[in-house]
Amino acid sequence: MDKALYLAMSGGVQTMNAQTIHANNLANVSTTGFRSDYEQARSMQVYGDYHPSRVYAMTENPATRYTQGDMIQTGRELDVAVAGEGFITVYDEQGREAYTRAGDLQINAAGQLVTGSGLPIAGVNGPVFLPPADRIHITADGSISIVPQGGAGTEVAILNQIKLVNPDIENLRKEEDGLIHSRDGQEFDIDPNVQLVSGFVEGSNVNAVEEMTHIMNLSRRFEMNVKMMDTIKGNADAAARVLQRPS
Predict the structure, then answer these.
(1) Which pLDDT value is given to residue 184?
(2) DSSP line for 25-70
(3) Cα 170 vs. chain centroid, distance in angstroms?
(4) What is the C-alpha end-to-end distance of the chain, expressed in Å?
(5) pLDDT tens, 130-146?
(6) For residue 117, which phi and psi values (nearest 5 degrees)?
(7) Do 228 and 112 share a structural domain?
(8) Count of other CB atoms within 10 angstroms of residue 97
(9) Total structural domains in the chain?
(10) What is the DSSP letter of 12?
C-alpha cells in the first residue's frame, strides 16, 4: 500500500514540475528572442540502507530548443535580428559574458547600448557606449556607425562592433536568468559568418498550441495521480475496518 502511495505522490510532484516548465514557455510566447525548454520524465530508483525497492518519476529539463523564431519587421534602427545561427553577446548581472537572440536594443541614460531588459551589449573591446547622434546604423556584421548630433549627413563615424558568436550548442546551457551561457565558463571568439538584419527583431520560438496541449495533458495526469491517492486511502481504510475486532 505504501509503495503505491509513494508512486502516486512522487508522480504528482514531478507532473507539477513539468507543468512549471511548459507554463514558463507559454508565458514567454511574446518575449523577444526567447528559447523554449524541453522537459522529460524518467524513472529513478530510491537507494537507501536496504534493498532499492522504490522507483519514482523524475522530471528534468534536458535541453533548450534553439530553432529560430519568426522575424518581425519593426523598421526601428536599433532593432536587429540574427539571421540564421549565432548569438549576440551581452554581460549578465555578474559581469560575465552571456548570449542572447534578443535584439531589441536601447541606449540608456549613460549612452550605453543595452538590450530591452537593460543588459549591456558586448562590443569587440568591451561595453558599447555611443555619443549623442542624429542617426545610428547597425550593419550586417554588427558594426555600429553614427551621424554625430548636428553633423552633416555625410559625416559618418564607425564607433564599435557588436560581438557576434556562433558556438556549438553542445557547449551551451540556458540558466535561470534566461540567458545562454557556456558550460565551462569560457568566452567564445567572434564569428564573422554571423549576420544581423537591421529593422527586425526575432520573436520567441515557443509554439503556443503545442505548449497548451502539453499543459492539458499534464493536468489530466496530475488528476490521475490524485485519484490514485484517494483510491489507495480508501483501500487502506477498508482494510483497517476489516482488521478491527468487534467490540
Answers:
(1) 87
(2) HHHTTTSTT---B--EEEEEEEPSSS---EEEEEEE---B------
(3) 15
(4) 27
(5) 988 888 999 999 999 98
(6) -95, 5
(7) no
(8) 18
(9) 2
(10) H
